[in-house]
Specification:
With 236 residues, this protein is mostly loops. The protein has strands at residues 83-85, 88-91, 131-133, 138-139, 165-167, 172-173, 198-200, 205-206, 231-232. Strands 3-5-7-9 form a four-stranded parallel beta sheet, with no helix packed on it. A three-stranded parallel beta sheet has the order 4-6-8, with no helix packed on it. A two-stranded antiparallel sheet has the order 1-2.
Length: 236
């Protein structure tokens, strides 16, 4: 069962499914996705809630676990965007959530978690939240770490891209890319996520650093480092 969009706390978690078959429910406002039963996919984690009133921003929620025998882990929720009041940042962009674990025997890891035992690919890390302002400074959120590959031949997941930063007159810094996941026993490491782009018409701008590549298994190569984010002065 999915959560409602006006929830808070544990009420934002997606419901677990029955014992045998079924998929976990979707989370909301940073809540976790529900776990599957013996066979089924984990629920998707809720996107992070943007800060408002007296409630702080939340990071993206973790995805639910895949079924014990077979199923994919749920995808982690995206990070929340930054919030500005009178061009001053009052809440930073948050990180994306981790994904759920795959089934024990078969299945791919969700965003940011491990693949199945025999050879599943680790999921990619979630993207960091974006930051957009007119004259205030802006800094993108950090990309999520890629999931580790499955036990034997699984490849590591790609790190999430850093969040973009955009301002008219303020200083901007793109978010750092997430690190790639490690490969399994003989699997290649995941590539690092790309750094977030930085766009400001007149302020200082720094592209986010690329994430490091994950280490490879026996006889397998490591992942490539992510690219640094680009910079521009396009105010559109």
């Amino acid at each position: 069962m999915p959560s409602t969009s006006d929830c808070t706390g544990e009420a934002c978690n997606g419901g677990d499914c029955g014992f045998f078959f079924g998929n976990g429910g979707t989370g909301a406002n940073g809540g976790t996705g529900g776990d599957a039963g013996l066979i089924g996919n984990g629920g998707t984690g809720g996107a992070g809630a943007v800060a408002q009133d007296n409630l702080p921003a939340t990071a993206g929620g973790a995805g639910g676990a895949g079924g014990l025998f077979w199923g994919n882990g749920g995808t982690g929720g995206a990070g929340a965007a930054a919030v500005y009041v009178d061009e001053e940042r009052v809440s930073e962009a948050t990180a994306g959530g981790a994904g759920g674990k795959a089934g024990w025997a078969l299945g791919n890891g969700g965003t940011g978690d491990a693949g199945g035992l025999f050879g599943g690919r680790g999921g990619a890390g979630g993207e960091g939240g974006a930051a957009t302002s007119d004259d205030g400074d802006a800094k993108g959120g950090i990309g999520g770490v890629g999931g580790n590959g499955g036990g034997i031949f699984g490849q590591g997941g790609k790190g999430g891209n850093g969040g973009a930063a955009d301002a008219t007159g303020g200083d901007v810094t793109g978010g750092t890319g997430g690190q790639g996941g490690s490969g399994g026993f003989a699997g290649r490491g995941g590539d690092g996520g790309d750094g977030g782009d930085a766009d400001s018409e007149s302020g200082d701008k720094t592209g986010g650093a690329g994430g490091a590549g994950g280490s490879g298994g026996l006889g397998a190569g490591s992942g490539s480092e992510g690219s640094q984010g680009s910079v521009s002065d396009d105010s559109d």
